[in-house]
């Protein structure tokens, strides 16, 4: 054996990536297999066949196997990470009973009756509507109410991460840092609900439908013979617990200090902090178990995030896509020129980036305001990126207030970080240095860190991070631009959703009624 390697597997919304990392954090080989993210039988539904994830995983792994040649023999373990809040219902033989329901699914379940005292408490603290909205998203309740014949056959209700672990090892077990979704999970104590939990009545499932949990970097099991043969890897090869894709991203950027914020420029854009204490970012919305030991990741998310950028290019960037193709670059890279050419603040154009609303204000909708005859597609493109960043700034300020910690540096990850222009814009807006690491595949890197720690190649996470995470030259903010952005944030950005909220609240009721008629 030469250098020991870990095979990281990252299952996202639109693709699966298999990657080989060494102990220095070098990404030696990578394969990406794309697929249609979901299908929709009805308005707002988002489902996918569980078998598709497994088939595409094997495809990606075997591409890396072929490309890596003799290095494949140096793989000492597997470290999988997946997107969050994707649920799968299993029968007694651990086979899926129906297709997976994805995180962006918008169907609503009937909210179970809560005890009077519990309901009164939620109303007293002004969070009853938020709790109801959360409860309406519990997929298990929807299946129990609408597909009772399937629900009666169900033995286990699992997240995608647990399902992938089952396929790899034959054991139904998962990491506490992957256990994130509309499930009866006690995020503070990192365990399943007890029957006396205040929120237990919201869930119709019995607790014996759940499964065993371990900590990140612990062994989930060994690779089964059948899967080992399919991958060209030995039976019993250790499969190591990691965390969710967002959690491993945060670890992969080295964000383990409270004064560093982790921004993820993914399909869903997020800001996370890593804290020693359990701090809910919004009342009754949990901080998630961090991959780093004895820590939590309070998070604010922008539901559609950098999906908006892809959407804009697809819908309105035909000419830019054609010119980018002729130039041999991506459309995003081609459109980066707009970020430099158009002044900060986009000459008055402002985007409120709620193409998909969050839990705190489910009535919010996206808006573009401030148009004049001088604005172009380029203005809209840059304004969208500024709008996402404004929302992340608002989330960061909220987390700072909750934690009492001032953010002094921002580490970025996700597809948007491949753009120096986006990174510099982010530094200008946040007013602190912005750093990225040696690879854009930070989820895979964070998973690999778990793998090497779990396999004993490092004594702890700190040693692994020191060896594998390498911050690049920081992007330093232009303070003149930052002062302008700060003024725009305070005087314009935060006011737009508040002014539009009453309008959308009324219109959304009409729209929801129309949807029910269509159904």
* Poorly predicted sequence stretches spanning 5 or more consecutive residues: none
Distance between the termini: 60 Å
Find the count of extended strands (DSSP E, 2+ residues): 23
Largest sheet: 5 strands, mixed
Number of helices: 17
The number of domains is 2
What's a concise summary of this model?
Helix content is 39%, strand content 17%. It is of the alpha+beta class and 519 residues long. The protein has 2 domains: 5-240, Nucleotidyltransferase, domain 5 (2-Layer Sandwich); 255-436 and 478-519, Nucleotidyltransferase, domain 5 (2-Layer Sandwich).
Task: Please give a structural write-up.
With 519 residues, the chain is of the alpha+beta class. The protein has 2 domains: 5-240, ATPase, nucleotide binding domain (Nucleotidyltransferase, domain 5), CATH 3.30.420; 255-436 and 478-519, Nucleotidyltransferase, domain 5 (2-Layer Sandwich). It has helices at 50-68, 116-124, 128-136, 139-146, 148-151, 160-169, 225-231, 245-252, 307-316, 318-327, 331-341, 377-403, 420-430, 442-454, 461-468, 479-493, 495-518; strands at 5-11, 15-21, 27-34, 47-48, 75-82, 87-90, 100-101, 156-159, 173-175, 185-186, 191-192, 212-214, 219-222, 238-240, 260-265, 269-272, 288-289, 296-297, 299-302, 350-352, 367-369, 409-413, 434-435. The strands form 9 sheets. It has a 5-stranded mixed sheet with strand order 19-16-15-22-23, sandwiched between helices. Strands 3-2-1-5 form a 4-stranded mixed sheet, with helices on both faces. α9 packs across α10 and α10 crosses α11. The longest helix is centred in the C-terminal third of the chain and has 27 residues, at 377-403. The termini are far apart.
């Amino acid at each position: 054996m030469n250098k020991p390697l870990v095979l990281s597997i990252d299952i996202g919304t639109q693709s699966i990536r298999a990657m080989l990392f060494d102990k220095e954090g070098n990404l030696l080989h990578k394969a990406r297999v794309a697929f249609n993210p979901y299908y929709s039988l009805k308005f707002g539904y988002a489902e996918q066949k569980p078998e598709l994830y497994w088939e595409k995983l094997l495809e990606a792994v075997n591409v890396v196997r072929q490309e890596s040649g003799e290095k494949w023999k140096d793989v000492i373990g597997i470290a999988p990470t997946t997107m969050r809040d994707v649920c799968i219902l299993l029968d007694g033989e651990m086979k899926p009973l129906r297709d997976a329901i994805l995180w962006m699914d918008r169907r609503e379940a009937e909210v179970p009756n809560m005890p009077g005292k519990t309901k009164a408490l939620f109303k007293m603290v002004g969070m009853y509507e938020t709790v109801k909205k959360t409860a309406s998203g519990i997929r298990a309740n929807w299946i129990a109410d609408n597909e009772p014949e399937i629900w009666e056959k169900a033995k286990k209700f699992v997240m995608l991460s647990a399902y992938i672990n089952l396929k790899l090892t034959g054991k139904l077990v998962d990491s506490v840092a992957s256990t994130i979704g509309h499930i009866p999970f006690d995020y503070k104590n990192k365990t399943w609900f007890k029957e006396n939990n205040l929120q237990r009545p919201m869930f119709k499932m019995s607790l014996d439908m759940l499964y065993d949990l371990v900590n990140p970097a612990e062994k989930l099991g060994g690779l089964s013979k059948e899967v080992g043969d399919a991958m060209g890897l030995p039976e019993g090869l250790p499969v190591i617990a990691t965390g969710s894709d967002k959690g491993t991203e945060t670890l992969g950027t080295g964000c383990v200090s409270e004064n560093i914020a982790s921004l993820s420029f993914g399909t869903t854009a997020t800001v996370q902090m890593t804290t020693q204490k359990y701090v809910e970012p919004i009342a009754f919305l949990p901080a998630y178990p961090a991959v780093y030991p004895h820590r939590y990741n309070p998070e604010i998310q922008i539901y559609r995030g950098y999906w908006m950028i892809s959407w804009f290019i697809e819908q309105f960037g035909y000419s830019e896509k054609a010119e980018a193709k002729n130039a041999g670059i991506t459309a995003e890279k081609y459109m980066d020129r707009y970020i430099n050419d158009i002044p900060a603040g986009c000459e008055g154009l402002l985007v409120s980036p709620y193409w998909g609303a969050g839990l705190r204000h489910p009535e919010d909708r996206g808006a573009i305001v401030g148009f004049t005859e001088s604005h172009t597609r380029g203005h809209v493109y840059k304004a969208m990126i500024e709008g996402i960043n404004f929302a992340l700034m608002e989330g960061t300020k909220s987390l700072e207030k909750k934690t009492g910690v001032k953010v002094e540096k921002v580490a970025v990850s996700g597809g948007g970080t491949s753009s120096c222009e986006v990174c510099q814009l982010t530094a200008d807006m946040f007013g602190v240095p912005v750093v990225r690491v040696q690879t854009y595949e930070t989820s895979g890197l964070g998973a690999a860190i778990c793998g090497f720690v779990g396999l004993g190649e490092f004594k702890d996470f700190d040693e692994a991070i020191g060896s594998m995470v390498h911050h690049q030259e920081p992007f330093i903010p232009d303070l003149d631009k930052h002062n302008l952005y700060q003024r725009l944030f305070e005087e314009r950005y935060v006011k737009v959703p508040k002014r539009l909220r009453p309008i959308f609240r009324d219109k959304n009721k009409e729209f929801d009624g129309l949807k029910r008629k269509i159904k």
